[in-house]
Amino acid sequence: MVLNAIPGIGPVMLKRLLDHFAEDPWEIIHANPSKLATIKGIGKKLIKSITETNWMDWLSRETEKLSKMNGCFIDNAEIPSYLKELEDPPAGLYCLGEIPQLPCISIVGTRIPSSYGKKYARELARDLASAGVCVASGMARGIDTEAHLGALEAGGKTIAFLGSGLDVIYPPENLGLYQKIISSGAVLSEFPLGKKADRRTFPMRNRLVAGVSLGVVVIESAKAGGSMITARFAAEQGRTVFALPGRIDHAESAGCLSLIRDGATLIRNCKDILSEIAPMVNHTSPVDLRSKTPGPPNHHNLDPSEKKIIEALRGDILYLEQIQQLTEMPLNEVMATTTMLEIQRLIHKRPDGRFEIN
Question: What DSSP string describes 109-161?
């Protein structure tokens, strides 16, 4: 939490500091200035911020404020597994609510949508949530808001990443939506309490919206809109980019049409999204990812990767990294396979982040 709050420490510098100090945050904030100066890219201003502030007092105040909000801070070991694949994963996340243990699809778009954009953003989110997918977005005006509302209308799960601290609700008119999301999912931020959004924080937020999901759906965006940044992050992270086509003579369609021209998956409805992501999360149902009547666990007909993970978990409760070590599988394959096993209700993830067999 402390490293998250120090001005000048972004994800890249954070990784350098943790690598240098054996992953121990307390060693960093108590380090000698001369030792800090040996780290590439660190300057006098940042060294002063680290060494001349009483971070223990700050931590006490921050923890108290977060507790009064009924929030918590999730450290790197507990953040959603897909976020750990980022080149610059967050050190942790401030959280209100509970992060759903479901596959995510992110929906993003313009803050000034047409009636067409609003309709399909809400409809797609509603159908995805009904199918057992968590809808992720950034709680901004426009398409983001419609996406969250659609998921909530379906009685489904949704998560919102903020470009500000959890106690800075932006836009302010979304206070009611913010409260509803907390009760049906989670509101998340990597920024300390009191932090206001700015030009730097929104792109940082966008990388998390892209990183947490199996794919990103863009609904109406200008060619240079923030949604295009999210789509670029998604493509760089190996996520599927979906785009809803619009009229060629409408400015708000330009970004989506450009994405489709460059290889994004054109979608017409929810089924187009579900059929694309089904191989990543469920072998049995390309349309409905939620089992209506779960039966007893069935360990037959598993593929080799699934069998490896089931065998690793027999009689044990393991973190993702421990499963990877025991199975000697690539981390991204372990993440995808554990997600699929969770959906099939063969395993589940405990509140402490460890997995066990049902």
Answer: E-SS--HHHHHHHHHHHHHHHHTTPEEEE---TTHHHHHHHHHHHTT--EEEE
- Dihedral sign, Cα of residue 254, residue 260, residue 261, residue 262: positive
* Token pair in block for residue 320: 């993702």
Residue 87 domain flag: no
Least confidently predicted of 136-145, 209-218, 295-304, 336-345: 295-304
Would you say residue 73 has pLDDT above 90? yes
Same domain, 310 and 276: no
Q: What is the CATH number of the domain that holds 192?
A: 3.40.50.450
In this predicted structure, the answer to whether residue 65 has a pLDDT above a threshold of 50 is yes
Angle (CA) 88-339-292 rounded to 5° is 140
Indicate the number of domains in the chain: 3
> For residue 221, what pLDDT is reported?
94
In this prediction, residue 53 carries a pLDDT of 75
Sign for the pseudo-dihedral over CA of 185, 190, 191, 196: negative
- Candidates 352, 350, 349, 344; CA nearest to 306 is 344
pTM: 0.73
Same structural domain for residues 116 and 246? yes
Of 44-53, 144-153, 197-206, 339-348, where does the model show the most confidence? 144-153
Yes or no: say if 149 and 177 are a contact pair by the CB < 8 Å rule.
yes
CA angle centred on 94, ends 88 and 98, rounded to 5°? 110
53: domain range?
2-68
**Confidence check: pLDDT of 119 > 70:** yes
Handedness of CA 119, 122, 124, 127 (dihedral sign): negative
Q: Are residues 276 and 148 in the same domain?
A: yes
Is 134 in contact with 210 (CB distance < 8 Å)? no
Please tell me whether residues 345 and 254 are part of one structural domain: no
Is 203 a domain residue? yes
CB atoms within 10 A of CB 41: 8
Pairing outcome for strands 240-243 and 347-349: unpaired
pLDDT recorded at residue 12: 78
